[in-house]
Design brief:
By secondary structure, the chain is α/β, with parallel strands linked by helices. It has 14 helices and 18 strands. An 8-stranded mixed beta sheet has the order 5-4-3-6-7-8-9-10, sandwiched between helices. Strands 11, 12, 13, 14, 15 and 16 form a 6-stranded mixed beta sheet that branches. It starts with 10 loop residues before the first helix and ends in a 17-residue tail after the last strand.
Length: about 550
């Protein structure tokens, strides 16, 4: 089968198509004077050279004409140029959300859904009472929802504030940074006295003060390495308020692996964007990255210590106004997902605050995207990261997959550092995230040492007695094992009660409903009959229920690289 390349329009062709559509639908009447070039550049958010390329294309197709020293004028549509106009305008209709006129749609908007039961709230006592008048809003879904907000900066502040006001029942807030004075000009939840305190903790406390009915939990840590996949798995929606590509890529992959939607937002000065990614529906975040962006991200493998440090250097200038706009749009998309209202996954909505214009376009999904992998059935182990050893997990995997089974870790382990000058070798066995750029230098020579890395546990290692936590595996994580043909996925469900509780800032006498802690039902349960005694270190003895050795429902073939 011969695969034809996908045709992509240039920016100039897209602009020309929109202008051609305006001429076709009568927005630009024959003989009408087009706006000045500077105004068109601002409306479309393009450069002068791009605009002139678009105008030149329209002129060549007899759709506009130039009058020296006066400007551009629309020509009449007749048999001589009708075909060209329709061809050029064809793509514009796909991206337009409404006709090219400036008139807003008339009539009330209602989401097509089943009739909602009539309920008359007590507006004097019910803080969410007015939401009952919204045709599509369902109280039970909203109050039972679990939403994770990753990033508690300017954008995250707005999202957390909105979700709290909207009555989202359970919020999990993640950030590794601390509050500083510069945050106070654009972050509604922070105060003068919060300097040098955890952003995640302060944001969670303020969310609880906004709405005492909201259950909150926070993590002061790095989303790329310190949050177990089991937490992602139990969320209804994940909202990313991030400022770097590596964190976005990590969130994208985690959500795809456990089949969860996430809402991304980005802001800079008066510009912003919002996009929703749903596994299996349109493009994901990694699909949107250019080849150059992917090469930049892969730098960390050639010099991982330096690359990790550089992630933290960027500071993006923002305003509280654009944070409020984009944060509101993200919160609204999350609310739609929770209430089952259709969204547009794989598309991006850009907002240009300089000219107050907004437009939505679709990304093209990539068939070879590395993020497009959803885990199969997940086996829940009554095991904990702090107590279970690598040997323990390897034994369980080999009981399922045979003697060739091996474990894959999500992050690289630095097993040793060797100085290229004095050739001294230091064995450290620490996850990459815990080794700083400074620590990578030789204490004698002062030069950067070469790292020996691994993320595969084969059973030949001399550190199998180490616990999963000591090699960087977070609590409630889901680990992968394979035998070269198929995968198995194991969750450290023994961590559940402590890793996911939504009890921060709760009065001691308040207990959450058991449903808050229970895992989702669509998982593989462990049979109660038969037990395997697995011994580790003195304090890590572990009794794990027998794991069936039958193949899982979903298999993933392992392809050997050529």
């Amino acid at each position: 089968m011969k695969i034809q390349p996908i045709a992509r329009k240039t920016l100039a062709e897209t602009v020309a198509g929109k202008l051609a559509a305006s001429i076709l639908d009568g927005s630009l009447q024959p003989g009408a004077h087009l706006p000045p070039e500077r105004e068109l550049m601002g409306q479309f958010g393009i450069s002068r050279s791009t605009l002139r390329e678009a105008l030149k294309g329209l002129e060549e197709n007899n759709l506009i004409e130039s009058r020296p020293h006066v400007g551009w004028f629309a020509r009449a549509i007749d048999e001589s140029n009708m075909a060209q106009a329709k061809e050029m305008a064809g793509g514009a209709a796909d991206t337009a959300s409404r006709p090219a006129t400036n008139e807003p749609p008339t009539g009330p908007f209602r989401v097509p859904m089943a009739d909602k039961a009539i309920h008359i709230p007590n507006l004097k006592k019910d803080r969410l009472g007015t939401f009952e008048f919204i045709s599509w809003w369902e109280r039970e879904k909203v109050q039972n929802a679990r939403v994770m907000v990753i990033g508690a900066g300017a954008l995250g502040n707005e999202v957390i504030k909105n979700l709290s006001l909207m009555g989202i029942g359970n919020l999990f807030i993640v950030d590794f940074d601390k509050v500083e004075a510069a945050n106070l000009s654009r972050s509604i939840l922070f105060r003068e006295g919060d300097n040098n305190r955890s952003k995640a903790e302060i944001a969670a406390a303020r969310a609880k003060s906004i709405n005492p009915d909201v259950h909150v939990q926070y993590l002061n840590g790095d989303i790329t390495t310190q949050l177990g996949l089991g937490i992602f798995r139990r969320m209804d929606v994940v909202i990313g308020c991030l400022d770097n590509r590596e964190a976005r890529l990590a969130v994208n992959r985690f959500c795809y692996w456990v089949n969860k939607p996430w809402v991304d937002g980005a802001i800079q000065e008066l510009l912003g964007l919002v996009r929703v990614f749903v596994p299996g529906q349109g493009a994901c975040y990694e699909c949107t990255l250019t080849e150059q962006a992917l090469r930049d991200l892969s730098m960390r493998y050639s010099c991982p210590l330096l690359a990790r440090q550089n992630i933290l250097l960027g500071k993006v200038p923002t305003t509280p106004t654009i944070a409020s706009i984009i944060g509101a749009m993200q919160s609204q998309e999350a609310l739609k997902l929770i209430n089952g209202i259709p969204v547009e996954p794989g598309k991006v909505t850009h907002f240009n605050g300089m000219v107050n214009e907004m437009h939505t376009t679709a990304y093209s999904p990539r068939d070879d995207c590395e993020s497009h992998w959803t885990y199969g059935d997940i086996t829940e182990l009554p095991a904990r990261a702090e107590r279970t050893t690598l040997a323990d997990l390897l034994r369980i995997a080999r009981a399922d997959l045979g003697p060739d089974a091996m474990i894959e870790l999500d992050q690289e382990l630095i097993t040793s550092l060797e100085c290229p000058n004095c050739h001294t070798v230091e064995k450290i066995l620490r996850p990459l995230s815990e080794v700083t750029f400074e620590a990578g230098h030789c204490p004698t020579c002062g030069v950067l040492r070469e790292s020996t890395l691994t993320h595969i546990i084969t059973g030949e290692e001399d550190f199998l007695h180490r616990t999963l936590a000591s090699v960087g595996v977070p609590s409630l994580h889901i680990l992968r094992a394979h035998n070269g043909v198929q995968y198995r996925f194991y969750e450290l469900t023994g961590d559940l009660a402590e890793a996911l509780h939504f009890r921060h800032f709760e009065p001691k006498h308040v207990a959450l409903a058991p449903a808050t802690h229970e895992p989702q039902p669509a998982t593989k349960n462990i049979p109660t009959s038969g037990r395997v005694r697995i011994k580790g270190e003195a304090k890590s003895d572990l009794t794990i229920k027998h794991v069936s050795a039958e193949p899982v429902g979903s298999r993933v073939k392992v392809r050997k690289s050529s």
